[in-house]
Hints:
By secondary structure, this protein is α/β, with parallel strands linked by helices. It has a domain at 79-148: CATH 3.100.10.10. 20% of the residues lie in helices and 14% in strands. It has 5 helices and 6 strands; from the N terminus they run ααβαβαβββαβ. The protein has helices at 43-46, 60-63, 83-89, 98-103, 134-142; strands at 79-82, 94-97, 113-116, 125-128, 131-132, 146-148. The mean pLDDT is 90.
Amino acid sequence: MADNEILQMHDLRPAPGAKKSRTRVGRGEGSKGKTSGRGFKGQTKRTHVRPGFEGGQLPLYMRLPKLRGFKSPFKTEYQVVNISKLAELYPAGGEVTAEDLVAKGAVRGGHPVKVLGDGETTVAFTLKGVKASASAKSKIEAAGGSIVEG
């Protein structure tokens, strides 16, 4: 092609070495013939076996125990706070809400909160919108507090 000619679509060619014809195995001794890259004799030469096949031995996926039970997608997971932690966060007692506990860094937001009965308290708490275990309820009420669930 001369320097002053315009390049045409029909003049385009792939770069040298870019197009390589695929290897046709088993088509004569000169081109991957005879064993066709499968080696000599045996089961994998004669036919293919699936991945994980162990030659008739009980395979790993059958030897392992099955997964038991299920996890309910509707289970409510509570953020827990003990009475001892409440006594630290609210030394004077008072009203305790889930939002306050999130603001003070005791629990994460977006989950319901439950107070458990580990620890002792002498100050009165008023729990609002927070669940409490039976032991926590008795300790809070013994100290003069109350629980308003809602």
